[in-house]
Amino acid sequence: MTGTHDAARPRHRVVIAGCGFAGLFAARALKHAPAEVTVVDRANHHLFQPLLYQMATGILSEGEIAPPIRDVLRRQVNTKVLFGEIAGVDAQRRTVTIEVLGSRSNLPYDSLIVATGATQSYFGNDQFARDAPGLKTIDDALEVRGRIFGAFELAEKEADAAERERLLTFAIVGAGPTGVEMAGQIAELAHRSLDRNFRSIDPARARIVLLDGGAKLLASFPESLQRRAMTDLQRLGVEVHLGTMVTGVDARGIDTTSDDPRLSRIEARTKVWAAGVEASAVGRLVAEATGAELDRAGHVKVEPDCTVPGHPEIFVVGDLMALDHLPGLAEVAMQSGAHAGRAIAHRLSGGTGTRPFKYRDLGTMATISRFRAVATIGPVRLWGFVGWLAWLLVHLVFLTGFKNRVATLVSWTVAFVGRGRPERTITLRQALGPEAENTDHAADSGHEEGR
Ligand SMILES: Cc1cc2nc3c(=O)[nH]c(=O)nc-3n(C[C@H](O)[C@H](O)[C@H](O)COP(=O)(O)OP(=O)(O)OC[C@H]3O[C@@H](n4cnc5c(N)ncnc54)[C@H](O)[C@@H]3O)c2cc1C
To answer: So which residues are the catalytic ones?
Structure first.
């Protein structure tokens, strides 16, 4: 490998599977490398997952949190973007199989960076997914948004009091950052943003229930911040029930392990699952191709330099990698992706050996409502308005693309300083959720009559 490109010799081919935080930072680290980089993703966009809950609650649009990958990388001339699903890895032939609509093709690589992240885990109860969608993709956020706003719409025209109450009950399973953020935002929506929008119902009477089988709210945060978050949520009117396992989910509600009759069965039309994650299925493909070990949640166990044991040409980074019990956080993904990209660039410039990956912990944060967040940044603990300002700054810095930053800042001003939720558009099918399957509305607004 040399730093100068010899026209007679083919360029080093780097394939990056997945363009979330890890894949994008890997690609950027290869910007000036003498390599032919191909980024493959089954989505056409780079998704800023930490703001999905704001999309699901009408604050931000999909365009603001998910710019097209090829636009983000348009100035990186050594990089091309392919739309497709990674469906196979052949570590002997050094190819990955890409599948689009049942048609498969093989893409050769010299170095491979696998960054396909994680998905929702229902802990073996995949049947819950239909009635309690998770929050991992744009599709999920659109689905959840449709169900939340749809519930208020349906409640407005419901004559039966018990059914109206069910429609206005929102159950969120999982009291980690995503669950807390969802609960806080639904509460703000009900108490503030939807004020004066309805005539038959009072949205502020909505019941918002946050459940977790564990004993702690925001378990990964220091106890002082857990207590603050609990107080803030309760002030917003969110019911928080810890030590309460969900044992059943159906179209009408959820069952739990609680002895309290109001909790053992919660009649709730809208359920959101924020309780667990498991590694992307591509991890298993890597394991089968290389003999790498997986941990219990399917993460690929890697060497300290993020390579697969016995395969220095294959890196696994971000949420998919298992290394030193690092958490599934955006910062881990960004830093490990950049590490893999730099390691390949270093080899291409004639360097030997790869340094171990060293994670710099920059802290974590979670918003509770407008102007309230909890954050840890090194030894510093922030909460309330100061915590929220830190959250605002960090998210603006990391949002990809100038256009997105400006648009997002405008949407935040509308939502947080004003009362608006600019992104409330839903279709009939989204409003009906899984119930649409049992009605004539399954085809949404697809009537062709009168054309
Ligand atoms: C709702 C939510 C809120 C979060 N909030 C925070 C937060 O506040 N702070 C924080 O630090 N972290 C947060 N996280 C975690 C953070 O978003 C993840 O750690 C980070 O996105 C992981 O990056 P990644 O690149 O490894 O995976 P991802 O970002 O998941 O990207 C994986 C990419 O791979 C693609 N892909 C998957 N499978 C295939 C396939 N078979 N073929 C082709 N492409 C594929 C996907 O389309 C995606 O683009 C949050 C996560 C969620 C879901």
So the answer is: 181
In tens, the pLDDT along 317-357 reads 999 999 999 999 999 999 999 999 999 999 999 988 889 99
Question: What's the CA-to-centroid distance between 133 and ligand 1, angstroms?
Answer: 16
Pocket test for ligand 1, best of 49, 60, 100 (most atoms within 8 A of CB): 49
DSSP string, 75-134: T-TTEEEEE-EEEEEETTTTEEEEEETTEEEEEE-SEEEE---EEE--TT-GGGGGTS--
DSSP symbols for 408-435: HHHHHIIIIIS---S-----HHHHHGGG
Ligand 1 centroid – CA 438 distance (Å) = 33
Rounded to whole angstroms, the Cα distance separating 48 from 431 reads: 25
Sheet-wide strand order for 380-382: 364-369, 372-377, 380-382
Write out residues with Cβ below 6 Å of ligand 1: 17-23, 40-43, 47, 49-50, 52-53, 85-86, 115-117, 135-136, 177-178, 280, 282, 318-320, 328-331, 333, 364
- Residue with CA nearest ligand 1 atom 53: 136
Residue nearest atom 7 of ligand 1, based on CA coordinates:
50
Contact 82, 27 (CB under 8 A): no
Q: Output the CA 319–ligand 1 centroid distance in Å.
A: 7
> 0.85 cut: is pTM over it?
yes
pLDDT, tens digit, 9 for 90 and up, residues 97-149: 999 989 999 999 999 999 999 999 999 999 999 999 999 999 999 999 999 99
Query: Which amino acid residue places its CA nearest to atom 48 of ligand 1?
Result: 20
CA of 415 to the centre of ligand 1 (A): 25
**Separation of alpha carbons 145 and 253, rounded Å:** 18
For the beta carbon of residue 74, count every other beta carbon within 10 angstroms: 11
What dihedral do alpha carbons 326, 330, 334, 340 form, nearest 10°? 40
117 Cα: distance to centroid of ligand 1 (angstroms): 5
Q: Which atom of ligand 1 is nearest to the CA of 45?
A: 49
Number of H helices, E strands in the chain: 14, 23
Name all contacts of 164-169 with Cβ < 8 Å and 24+ positions apart: 164/201, 165/207, 165/267, 166/252, 166/253, 166/267, 166/268, 166/269, 167/269, 168/201, 168/203, 168/205, 168/206, 168/207, 169/206, 169/207, 169/208, 169/209, 169/253, 169/266, 169/267, 169/268, 169/269, 169/270
